[in-house]
Design goal:
Elements: E1 6-8, E2 16-19, E3 40-45, E4 58-63, E5 74-75, E6 96-98, H1 112-115, E7 117-121, E8 125-132, E9 139-143, E10 147-154, E11 157-161, E12 164-168, E13 172-176, E14 182-185, E15 191-198, E16 223-225, E17 233-242, E18 245-253, E19 258-263, E20 268-271, E21 292-297, E22 304-311, E23 314-316, E24 333-341, E25 355-358, H2 368-375, E26 383-385, E27 388-395, E28 400-401, H3 403-406
Parallel strand pairs: 9-17
Antiparallel strand pairs: 1-16, 2-19, 3-4, 4-19, 5-18, 6-25, 7-8, 7-28, 8-15, 10-13, 10-15, 11-12, 11-14, 13-20, 17-18, 21-22, 22-27, 23-26, 24-25, 24-27
């Protein structure tokens, strides 16, 4: 297999082309009568055929065997805690927070798919945590229900995909498009992280609008893999999540046998540490959309089914203002996860691996200690927020928490206490 190498995306919607053997891509046409090297030509479409060219996601694959070369699917008991139904129990309007989900007991071998635990979701996305201790062996997976946004929090992942290999570490992300077959390998052993399963339009970079031509995530920093193939025969399993259920089929070879490909429907990675933070330097804390990395737009202009937001290292220099996020209520359902370091809006209880849900019109904001500290801070000096990385999956509707998340021993059932110390300071006789 070829070494891990990448090509720049140079902007979403662009055409990429890569071949692991010289001349494996046909000179002209997408489906020649006979493809080079005796390969099969196959197309995969991630969007409707008729969407605008700039939004179209499709790729031509030149592979050793066509994707159809496997047995019939049968129901599988894989992914028992990876759910697509979020209405088993009522979701309370409470603020909810969880300690890091514990890794499986020593000696327990659990791969990426079987370790997945769904925390919540809605019609636009499902939000999950993985705690894997073993690489996928003789098993390959693809998601028929949506694309996967993978955010490692502990341990690197090697994502061996049909179109090549991606290696990601904490503070990097990867997106595996709908239908792309892949295998997750653990070069460092046990690994934990967050996964958002996007059911809506494929994730894309936001337009910058009044920000101008620069800022936020730069297109050139998104990388797609170079072609790399496996020509391996054996007894393997191909697993899919289809309409919320898991199905398995026997396959007598590795499905990662694409020798060349070109198109726009491809996996990619991005380093969150390269995010170019925009913010306010006069007064007030900016809305979280100022930290938007990727989004899935809906049919309603200005409304996304999913926003992916990163709270990266930054400088707060606003004068005579409350610098942390203020107390607020909004229509959004917010899932936050701490990837690395300390999140500046919380004094404690939100260590790396922790996560929270603050739902539609549920009041939340800084805890008592953070409020008191920020209220008395010297704002003539800037705050350098270093060694930090938190992420948010934000949706325009309620995130319904699953029963397994609500009943988890990792849930902080006394989370509400962090606001108990907020005192009344009101004095109508003194401004």
């Amino acid at each position: 297999m070829a070494d891990l190498k990448f090509q720049y995306m140079s902007g979403f919607g662009n055409e990429f082309a890569t071949e692991a053997l010289p001349g494996a891509l046909p000179d002209r046409g997408n489906s020649p009568q006979r493809a080079p090297y005796g390969l099969y030509a196959e197309q995969i479409n991630g969007t409707a055929f008729t969407v605008a060219r700039a939004a179209n996601r499709r790729s031509w694959l030149y592979r050793i065997r066509p994707g159809a070369a496997h047995d019939a699917f049968a129901p599988s008991n894989a992914g028992a805690h990876w759910l697509s139904s979020f209405n088993q129990v009522p979701t309370p309007p409470n603020r909810m927070r969880w300690d890091p989900i514990a890794m499986p007991a020593a000696g327990t071998q659990v791969d990426f798919v079987d370790s997945m635990m769904t925390i919540g979701g809605n019609a636009g996305c499902g939000i999950n945590v993985y705690t894997a201790t073993a690489s996928m062996q003789k098993r390959y997976f693809y998601d028929s229900d949506g694309e996967l946004l993978i955010v490692p929090q502990q341990g690197r992942l090697t994502l061996a995909t049909e179109l090549g290999n991606l290696e990601i570490e904490p503070q990097e992300i990867a997106v595996i498009p709908c239908g792309i077959r892949f295998q997750v390998r653990l070069p460092d052993g046990a690994a934990r992280g967050f996964v958002c399963e996007n059911y809506g339009a494929p994730l894309q970079l936001p337009t910058l609008g009044v920000i101008g031509s620069n800022g936020l995530a730069h297109p050139r920093d998104f990388l797609t893999p170079l072609a790399a193939w496996e020509d391996v025969d054996g007894d393997f399993e191909i697993l899919t999540k289809f309409d919320g259920q898991f199905w398995t089929a026997k396959i007598d070879h590795s499905p990662l046998d694409v020798v060349a490909w070109h198109g726009t429907h491809a996996p990619y990675k991005y380093d969150l540490r390269k995010f170019n933070v925009a913010g306010f330097i006069s007064y007030d804390h900016p809305d979280p959309c100022m930290n938007l990395v990727l989004h899935a737009p809906s049919a309603t202009p200005g409304v996304d089914t999913l926003d992916f937001i990163a709270f990266a290292p930054r400088v707060l220099a606003m004068l005579d203002t409350f610098r942390p996020p203020w107390f607020h209520r909004n229509i959004a359902g917010e899932f936050m996860g701490n990837v690395h370091g300390h999140y500046d809006a919380k004094a404690g209880g939100f260590e790396p691996g922790s996560m929270s849900i603050h739902n539609t019109m549920t009041a939340h904001g800084p805890d008592t200690e953070t409020f008191e500290k920020a209220s008395a801070a010297d704002t003539s000096k800037p705050d350098h927020i270093k060694d930090t990385m938190a992420i948010m999956f934000e949706t325009p509707v309620i995130i319904h928490a699953t029963q397994q998340a609500l009943e988890s021993p990792h849930r902080q059932r006394e989370y509400v206490r962090v606001w108990e110390g907020l005192k009344k300071h009101f004095n109508p006789k003194q401004r």
